Amino acid sequence: MGRITTRRPVTRIVLGEAGGSGTRRVDTLAVEEPLEIRIGGVPLAVTMRTPGHDVELAIGFLVSEGVIANPSEFRSAIHCGGPGTGGAENTYNVLDATLAPGVRAPSGDEARRFYTTSSCGVCGKASIDAVETISRFDVSGDDTTVEAEWIAALPDRLRAEQAVFDKTGGLHAAALFDATTGELLVLREDVGRHNAVDKVVGWALQQGRLPLRNVVLQVSGRASFELVQKATMAGIPVLAAVSAPSSLAVELADRAGVTLVGFSRGRSMNVYAHARRIRIEGEPADRAQDREGQVQR
């Protein structure tokens, strides 16, 4: 796995009724390292990520921040030496991106807001209005619909493809599925859930697929505000998560037109926004009634 994983000695403790035992063993860990994203040599953001697919990560980040939205606006990216090395040593933890002529790079004030970590997502974007203002895609008009049975199967499909998680147990995953054919389009893993999403969005821009109409974004953890923001900026109509959404995530999804599914586990799920896209035996979920005759929303 190269720089994606590393092996470290650990003490394994197993407790039983008669006490416990400890043994020394070697464990496989997911690598977490900083990536500094630069534009034209100017530092823009730092994120803690799992190395790999760094160009996709940078592209996805730029999409989510409204800097670019199509392949013609991005020219290239290259790893370069880290701070204090004079450029002589390539640490592979600094990525310098070049935008197409005429594409405005973020200002210094904007760049200072872009510090990220693997746990908090994009810091500084605290306003739903800001996301609505800069998004180039109208998600609310996307007429994608999917069966609830199909959505319920996605977490298991996601988990089955997590090769690095099998070795470490320590990575999030994000995947794009074609809502018509059910095909898995792309899957990426990372210590940061928002990084995993940036990587699949970056892949999509490179493939000329933005806006991501008629797809479902499935994520392995919770649905935070940042993930709904990224879905909105990429034109993704359906975001499904294994765990809970936050209140701000639901508010943004509702206003942006994103169908937000949470607690998608086994044979149940909660649809927090725009349930019209989820069908139960062919009928939109927001019209389906429970045994007491109450509309489920």
Chain-wise SSE layout:
Layout: E1 5-16, E2 19-30, E3 33-39, E4 42-49, H1 54-64, E5 74-81, E6 90-99, H2 108-111, E7 116-117, E8 121-122, H3 128-134, E9 146-147, H4 148-160, H5 163-168, E10 172-178, E11 184-190, H6 193-206, E12 215-219, H7 225-234, E13 238-241, H8 247-256, E14 259-265, E15 268-273, E16 278-280, E17 283-284
Parallel strand pairs: 3-6, 9-16, 12-13, 13-14
Antiparallel strand pairs: 1-2, 3-4, 5-6, 7-8, 10-11, 10-12, 14-15, 16-17
Helix pairs in contact: 1-6, 1-7, 6-7, 7-8
Keyword list:
297 residues; alpha/beta; Ubiquitin-like (UB roll); Cytidine Deaminase, domain 2; 2 domains; 6-stranded mixed β-sheet; 4-stranded mixed β-sheet; 8 helices; 17 strands; 35% strand
